[in-house]
Specification:
The protein is α+β, with helices and mostly antiparallel strands. The protein is built from 21 helices and 15 strands. It has five domains: about 190 residues, Multidrug efflux transporter AcrB transmembrane fold, CATH 1.20.1640.10; about 60 residues, Alpha-Beta Plaits (2-Layer Sandwich); about 110 residues, Gyrase A, domain 2, CATH 3.30.1360.200; about 190 residues, Up-down Bundle (Multidrug efflux transporter AcrB transmembrane fold), CATH 1.20.1640.10; about 80 residues, ACT domain (Alpha-Beta Plaits, 2-Layer Sandwich). The strands form four sheets. It has a four-stranded antiparallel beta sheet. It has a four-stranded antiparallel beta sheet with strand order 5-4-8-9. It has a four-stranded antiparallel beta sheet with strand order 13-14-12-15, covered by helices on one side. Helix 9 runs antiparallel to helix 20, helix 18 packs across helix 19 and helix 18 runs parallel beside helix 21. The longest helix is centred in the C-terminal third of the chain and has 40 residues.
């Protein structure tokens, strides 16, 4: 009877696994809700819409233009967190928005919605402005019941102190006007939304805009008001559909790389951990299926940074299983039965997994709340991956392992065992490890200084950070992405040297936009001459202009602030969980170490510092903190075990803890590295530039978690102990 029940469980498990794969691929219903093919992709992977606005003023104020760019970038966030806005020339602004369906119909919808970005104003009957959107602190949509008992929709505004003062004075003046003129017109983008009567002075900092046609309309207006008034009047002068920046092969090669990487990981897990490894492989299939479904269902825009988040979450999902299975092998090696080893292994691994994931999840939540653009995309995919990995590792994998045990897989040999190994003296070699780190960091900073002294800049900043030139070329015929990369890009490089050249094809057109570093007049002339000579392009069909950075100063400040707050939040959480500040300080110092080393690699290799740079550094932080917490969890456990033992001092405890978790560190590094390495091998050029520093980051993170954090913790705790004595 028990056997039949377990066989039924196995059958249902296989059905669930296949069902999730089907769900991820085909989705739900006729429209394929949540299907992989309906995943919202970024411009780099799927193309999108490009809109060019021009200011009505011929010589707009620079500050107002920058404010307009920032606020317009906030406004387009509702279409995609990966939308970018940047300056072209002196008075033009380009907006690029990823679209799930890149069609003229979808483009028209967005253009109609964006309209001509204008301002919010409260005016009296004579057209005098009482307050503007700049006087509004916050805005929220809501519902209220009217006199007839029906729901009506409104927007509740909270004014600034200055705005409240203006509004009080304005309503007093309006209330004293004759009937028919005692109203305040609320005007947004030149359209009167509402014109309520004002019969008395209104004090306070709250204002309600009533009689909105629907909750959606109220919510839309509230969102625009929160963003704030756009300072300049803009006209749409051009819109076009863009082809994928990375080419049509980017998705295909990335999927192939991910598939091969996951297959290698599954084979590795089965080889090293046997039955538990097979169980983890089933759970990994379910994990990937759930993540892909959720990303598609919630319409999260997937770009290269988003893929980085998924890669890291897969690494953390596998890591959770590695921690558990290593514990099970230790328990079997200690002489416990398989049944007890499984139970104890999951119990002992629980808090190491939970602390590592929760720490990263806290940072992810802050990055999503405060970050913009690629940071939001990275945070969203990583958060989904972490939550799903916790579920699959602690629930699904546990269920599968216990099921296979119940089905007869009870021999210890099917699970492996791990005997006590010789304790390696990591602390005794701390000077060597510190010397390696210091040399690597100093070399990196030295190269940064050298680069700066040669007027090349410490880093090879990409167009997203430094701006550059945009060269629009209309060829005689439409060229493929491969042709552009293999033939036309080298033509640019002959003139400007080996540098990052971004390609944007206008879909179903012979028009192509090449974005490069800022070109001189002579370089522009040389490039034009080569294009005319080789491709017969008309000189009048080559247009060049300077473009600003798509990562604005405000966005950079937001990114820095979000990372700082995330780091502080992680420090506090680790401090609370481990009850010693030294644990938190060591972890944060390790993060700083890894960031400095990888920054040095960027300086030495001159790999472009663009949007993928942000994703790479954030991935590194998440990977390092997770790896560090696993070791610290073992240190905390061994401190309790050997608290009363004189034979085991602090040095021995930390060395023992690092040694006991060393196999986990190696195995997790291998599985994560494999995923990134396959993307590097099979990916297109831009993806290779993203994968290479990520591979370095994985190796550096592994080194610091094993060789740096332990010695740092020892020094800090030992110093505290000496100070106490």
């Amino acid at each position: 009877m028990m056997s039949n029940k377990n066989l039924l469980k196995l059958f249902l498990l296989m059905v669930a696994c296949l069902g999730l794969v089907y769900l991820a691929y085909f989705g739900i219903g006729k429209d394929g809700y949540g299907a992989a093919e309906n995943t919202k992709l970024g411009i780099d992977l799927n193309g999108g819409l490009s809109i060019t606005f021009e200011t009505e003023e011929e010589n707009p104020d620079e500050q107002e233009l920058n404010d307009t760019i920032y606020k317009l970038s906030q406004r387009v966030q509702k279409y995609s967190t990966e939308a970018s806005v940047y300056k072209e020339g002196d008075r033009r602004i380009n907006v690029e928005i990823p679209l799930k369906e890149t069609s003229l119909e979808s483009a028209k919808t967005i253009l109609d919605d964006l309209g001509t970005p204008g301002t919010l104003e409260f005016q009296d009957a004579d057209g005098n402005i009482i307050i503007t959107g700049a006087d509004v602190k916050s805005a929220e949509a809501g519902t209220m019941q009217n006199d007839a008992g029906l729901n009506s929709y409104m927007v509740k505004l909270k004014l600034t102190d200055e705005g409240a003062k203006k509004f009080t004075e304005g309503t007093l003046a309006v209330s004293q006007k004759a009937s028919g003129s005692n109203y305040i017109a609320i005007i947004f983008d030149g359209e009167v939304i509402s014109a309520p009567r004002c019969e008395k002075q209104i004090d306070g900092d709250e204002v309600v805009v009533e009689n909105m046609e629907s909750y959606k309309a109220a919510d839309k207006l509230a969102a625009y008001i929160r963003i704030g008034a756009i300072p300049l009047k803009l006209n749409t002068i051009r819109s076009s559909i863009l082809a994928p920046q990375l080419g049509s092969n980017a998705i295909k090669t990335s999927l192939m790389a991910a598939f091969i990487g996951i297959c290698i990981i599954m084979a590795f897990m089965i080889f090293v951990y046997r039955i538990p490894g097979f169980c983890a492989s089933l759970a990994l299939v379910m994990y990937v299926s759930i993540v892909l479904f959720v990303v598609s269902a919630f319409e999260i825009t997937l770009t290269l940074p988003g893929i980085a988040g998924i890669i890291l979450s897969i690494g953390m999902a596998v890591d959770a299983n590695v921690i558990i299975f290593t514990r099970i092998k230790e328990e079997i090696g200690a002489g416990n039965s398989v049944d007890l080893a499984i139970k104890t292994g999951f119990d002992k691994a629980f808090w190491a997994i939970m602390d590592g994931n929760v720490t990263t999840l806290i940072a992810t939540a802050i990055l999503y709340a405060l970050g913009t653009g690629p940071i939001k995309g990275f945070a969203a995919t990583l958060a989904i991956g972490i939550i799903v990995s916790l579920f699959t590792a602690l629930t699904v994998t546990k269920f599968i392992v216990k099921l296979f045990y119940a089905l007869g897989a009870k021999a210890p040999g099917l699970y492996g065992s791990k005997k006590d190994t010789k304790i390696f003296d990591f602390i005794g070699r701390k000077k060597i490890f510190f010397a390696i780190s210091i040399i690597a960091i100093l070399a990196g900073f030295g190269i940064m200084g050298y680069n700066a002294s040669q007027d090349k800049g410490p880093f090879n900043f990409g167009i997203e950070f430094a701006g550059g030139s945009s060269t629009t070329v209309t060829f005689k015929e439409e060229l493929s992405q491969d042709k552009l990369e293999s033939d036309v890009v080298p033509l640019f490089e002959e003139v400007i040297g080996k540098t990052n050249v971004q390609i944007q094809k206008v879909d179903n057109s012979a028009e192509v936009v090449f974005k490069t570093r800022e070109l001189t007049a002579d370089e522009n002339a040389q490039i034009s001459a080569k294009l005319v000579e080789k491709y017969g392009v008309d000189e009048g069909a080559i247009l060049s202009d300077n473009i600003g950075s798509s990562v604005s100063g405000k966005m950079r400040r937001d990114a820095i602030i979000s990372v700082i707050i995330s780091t502080i939040a992680m420090l506090i959480y680790i401090w609370i969980r481990f009850r010693k500040f030294e644990f938190a300080a060591s972890a944060i110092l390790a993060i700083c170490h890894d960031v400095c080393v990888v920054l040095g690699f960027y300086a030495i290799s001159r790999i472009t510092v663009g949007n993928t740079f942000i994703a790479c550094m954030l991935t590194l932080v998440g990977y390092t903190i997770n790896a560090t917490i696993v070791i610290f969890d073992r240190v905390r456990e061994n401190m309790k075990i050997y608290a009363s033992s004189r034979a085991h001092d602090l040095k021995d405890i930390i060395n023992r803890s690092i040694t006991e978790t060393f196999s986990r560190s190696v195995n997790t590094t291998f599985t994560t590295f494999v995923m990134v390495f396959m993307i590097f091998i099979l990916g297109v050029t831009s993806i290779k530039e993203f994968a290479l520093p990520l591979m370095v980051g994985v190796l550096v993170g592994a080194f610091s978690s094993v060789c740096i954090t332990g010695p740092l913790l020892y020094l800090l705790l030992n110093r505290k102990k000496k100070a106490g004595n």
